Amino acid sequence: MRYPPLYTTVALSLFTLSTSSIVYTNDGAIEGKLHQYNDIEYLSYRGIPYAEPPIGDLRFMPPLPKKSWTGTLDATKQKAVCPQAESSYYKTDQMNEDCLFLNIYVPLPHNEELLPVSLFAHGGEFNALSGYDDLIYGPQLLLEQNIIVVTFNYRLGALGFISLNIPEASGNAGLKDAILALKWVNKNIQFFGGDAEKITLGGNSAGAALTHYLMLSESTSGLFQKAFLNSGSALGYRFLARHPVENAIALAKEIGIESNNKTQILLQLKEADAFTIVEAQSTLGKGNKRNGFRPFAPFVPSIEIESTNAVLTDEPINIIKSGIPQNVPTLTGFNAKEGMKMLPAILRNVSLIEELNGDFKLCVPSDLEYPSDSEELNNLAQSIKEFYFNGANISKSNIGEFVNMITDTQFYHSTDYWIKLHKAHKESNTLYYYKFDYDGSLNWFKLTNQIDLPGPAHADELGYMFVTRMTAPLLQNATDTDNRVMQNFLSLWTNFIKYGTPTSPVTNYTWPDSGEDRTYLLLNDQPHARAGPPLPSRTKFWEDVYEDYYEYIRDSGKLEPQIVP
Ligand SMILES: *[C@@H]1O[C@H](CO)[C@@H](O)[C@H](O)[C@H]1NC(C)=O
Ligand SMILES: *[C@@H]1O[C@H](CO)[C@@H](O)[C@H](O)[C@H]1NC(C)=O
Ligand SMILES: *[C@@H]1O[C@H](CO)[C@@H](O)[C@H](O)[C@H]1NC(C)=O
Ligand SMILES: *[C@@H]1O[C@H](CO)[C@@H](O)[C@H](O)[C@H]1NC(C)=O
Ligand SMILES: *[C@@H]1O[C@H](CO)[C@@H](O)[C@H](O)[C@H]1NC(C)=O
């Protein structure tokens, strides 16, 4: 019998609600809610505003800290998600531009000792999803490991990332939201029993890239002590907008703003309905032939002009080469078959494959800006086609090769490459590198998208980390191997969060610092460390491609911006 009799639960929750579920912070009182999960109890505080609503004149601006309040803030219910295209995940009536909330989950009981804190940034290509626990980010498995979990919303798409390269709209508002959430946690987590000196910033996909951007910024010094990045980095070409102003102007045109005066454009964009902006942004993306091969969103982080609020003012690769400002212990890696991320779109509409076969240059990552009619681009397209497909067209019969190509271009190479550049520094901090390669009954993305190819897709690890809506009913039927993989996964991540090292004295294998040879942990049901890089011939191929490109730029080769419209 796992659960106590009903009356005990009721009595206990009444007692707790009337005493300890109200937390008094310096900004005001917050009321949370008691929950039970398997053998633990925990308190949730959902929908705590950490910023003033980013509406009206504050749209596109860096967020302002939330002013203190009187009375007790009700944090017993989920609040709005940030505006995004309507999908099976969220409907428009769940969205509001007033969306800058965070959620805190505290395991019980806990004594005087302050607990380590994990601040987790959600994924969703910088234009979808939220930090809430309703779809993906149910924190119970992490709470069982006795840490505090904090999740948060940040502004998405154009509302979060538009840049006109002027002080009033300099870009990266969504990253600035994350920084303010971090500051809020530093200031207030002690009132929830959390240790403000043991904060680990982490995330998956866009949340991993967000984490990485904050590691590359001088502006986050002292705000977090460790970082984990599941499948994402600032070098991932789809996570950086190289021509944000052109995209902003195209968006303005899409909603009927014809001016070329940036101040005018900004004024009118601030007057537009938030959902008109969201809709225009979806329309822009659809018309793009490189859809799937150009930046997500297309409104994502960008390089800013210098200002007191700036997060990123140089190319990520330059920052990594010269030594990252937040040189903290890091845990990062990728999933063996990340590229399955592209399959739902492709399988829904086979004419997308035809389009790629008709013009293979569309498969070249959009940060390689060779002119469209150049010999360099044609040769590169041909060599990618040879390397992955032996020169054949993409088809159902070689879809596994297509998955590998996407895995490499969108996730693997950029992760492997930044690790290489970072670990070339003697003073680089410890970095734990993994390749997740387990295919069980809880692989979140494949379940959600009904994909039955072997290997773990992008975001599949989430089923071993969180109680997701998709996997919650499957947990009771998980196999022993699934459970072993899950417990191992959780102990690696939470040991890292607690102690800075993922393995513990009871772990029967070691996961060493990646070092210059990029040693990594093969993370499956028989985890063990291996000499890196994880995919040597694919690493070599892409390192050569980018070396050639940098040489082309050094030789003053002509470039053609790959902008979205
Ligand atoms: C742009 O518009 C602003 C606001 O209407 C105006 O003050 C400014 O003079 C304009 N700039 C130019 C170059 O026309
Ligand atoms: C499929 O993709 C093609 C090419 O991008 C597009 O023209 C067509 O409208 C799409 N069809 C559907 C049903 O979405
Ligand atoms: C590859 O696909 C393109 C576009 O559909 C087609 O024109 C071409 O003939 C195909 N090549 C082969 C070898 O099948
Ligand atoms: C779990 O397994 C039981 C027994 O085999 C079965 O009846 C039940 O439908 C399964 N539940 C799910 C969610 O698959
Ligand atoms: C570690 O322990 C697990 C579970 O007991 C076992 O399956 C695995 O083979 C062991 N691994 C090593 C490297 O000893």
Characterise this structure:
By secondary structure, the chain is α/β, with parallel strands linked by helices. It has 2 domains: 6-318, Rossmann fold (3-Layer(aba) Sandwich), CATH 3.40.50; 331-554, Alpha/Beta hydrolase fold, catalytic domain (Rossmann fold). Helices cover 33% and strands 14% of the residues. The chain contains 16 helices and 14 strands. Bound molecules: 2-acetamido-2-deoxy-beta-D-glucopyranose (5 copies). One 2-acetamido-2-deoxy-beta-D-glucopyranose (NAG) binds at residues 261, 263-264.
Task: Describe the structure using short key phrases.
single chain; 565 residues; alpha/beta; Rossmann fold; 2 domains; eleven-stranded mixed β-sheet; three-stranded mixed β-sheet; 14% strand; globular; disordered N terminus; binds 2-acetamido-2-deoxy-beta-D-glucopyranose
Write the layout of secondary structure elements.
Blueprint: H1 6-18, E1 22-24, E2 29-31, E3 33-37, E4 40-49, E5 72-74, E6 101-108, E7 115-121, H2 140-143, E8 148-152, H3 157-161, H4 173-188, E9 194-204, H5 206-215, E10 226-230, H6 244-254, H7 262-271, H8 274-286, H9 316-322, E11 330-335, H10 343-348, H11 351-358, H12 375-389, H13 399-423, E12 431-436, H14 444-449, H15 480-499, E13 520-523, E14 528-530, H16 536-554
Parallel strand pairs: 2-5, 7-8, 7-9, 9-10, 10-11, 11-12, 12-13
Antiparallel strand pairs: 1-2, 3-4, 4-6, 6-8, 13-14
Helix pairs in contact: 13-16
The chain binds 2-acetamido-2-deoxy-beta-D-glucopyranose (5 copies).
Family: Belongs to the type-B carboxylesterase/lipase family.
Enzyme class: hydrolase
EC number: 3.1.1.-
